[in-house]
Amino acid sequence: MALLEVEDLRVAFGASTAVDGVSFSVEQGKIVGLVGESGCGKSVTSLAVMGLLPRGRAAKARKGDQPVQAAAEEASPGAVKASVAAPQAVPAGGGRRKGGGADVSGRAVFDGTDLLSLPASAMRRRRGKDLAMVFQDPLSSLNPVVPIGRQITEVLERHRGLKGDKANKEAASLLDRVGIPDPVRRLKEYPHQLSGGMRQRVLIAIAVACAPRLLIADEPTTALDVTIQAQILELLKDLVDHEGTALLMITHDLGVVAGMCDEVNVLYSGRVVESAPVRELFARPTHPYTVGLLGSIPRLDLPLHEPLTPIRGSIADVIRWKDGCAFAPRCDRVADACVAGEPALVGSAHAHRCVMAEEVA
Ligand SMILES: Nc1ncnc2c1ncn2[C@@H]1O[C@H](COP(=O)(O)OP(=O)(O)OP(=O)(O)O)[C@@H](O)[C@H]1O
């Protein structure tokens, strides 16, 4: 059994469905990508798995509310008071976007335990220790008025019981491990004294401080320039290779997917529309949305000046899945069958949700 099995995950904010029956799994020592354009449900999926969404009315009635801030404070290994990851979790889950709490259903089975059914206190113990998250924007994920050393030692104290010199030594060795030179001096510095790439390394150091078995990285390199991006991705890959960490990589960047992932799940309008091992997906994309995503990125193997083919329309041009394929209004190959009812996910190793798949192939 995989380390994480997400089954039929659904997340709704009031009447609006953000994640609509998503299933995927992540094996130990593997990198699994969740890919799709903005708004398809990638972040909400990961926040739901981490238990970081503000609870909606239905959930409150079931188990009592877990306030957003409380959840955020526990966000990741940086989930200590006034520390990392938390500020970013709040906007993603409930601050930046208005719309109240989330009603979450389905299962997210981690090492045999359904995380979605855990009480908030048990989930808090797991976050940071077994599961950790790295967010996109390190500046808003770190506390600007606390030296980075303190932000790391708080995690070590909380989850590993390390204090004083021992905690400081371990913090310096974590910074060293993520490639920050002169770590002892850096421990005393504040986030604004570090470059963007270094701040992201600090977040990764915090995330791995307790050797989590599952790391979720939500667009961890989007805010960085390409050379730093490559270093950070290499660092994450090393963790997987050397520690056997399972990595769920959330990205809209197919280049990152190609270079990093073992398996890929393509999301569209809250549902997985295609999932496959990475080579298979790039060699034989089957869903027209995946084909469109691949057609819209520049390729070195095509003649110079070959035009890119963007997907027409936007993710707002969707129909509800129960009425047919949500991608149909943007699809060049749309046929009557596409809007005749809900398309099922077909296949196992390489699965797709397209009734016209044979014609597409
Ligand atoms: N707190 C909230 N209240 C209401 N709707 C929300 C909330 N958080 C997210 N959504 C909606 O859920 C949908 C999925 O959002 P999500 O952030 O998961 O997308 P995404 O694929 O991660 O996009 P991006 O790459 O831009 O972060 C969007 O339509 C978004 O507006």
Structure description:
- This protein has 361 residues and is of the alpha/beta class.
- It has two domains: 249 residues, P-loop containing nucleotide triphosphate hydrolases (Rossmann fold), CATH 3.40.50.300; 90 residues, no CATH class.
- The chain contains 15 helices and eleven strands.
- Strand 9 and strand 10 form a beta hairpin.
- Helix 8 packs across helix 10.
- About 11% of the residues have low confidence.
- Bound molecules: adenosine-5'-triphosphate (ATP).
- The site of adenosine-5'-triphosphate (ATP) has 16 residues, from strand 2 and helix 1.
Provide keyphrases for this structure.
Rossmann fold; binds adenosine-5'-triphosphate; 19% strand; 361 residues; 4-stranded antiparallel β-sheet; alpha/beta; 15 helices
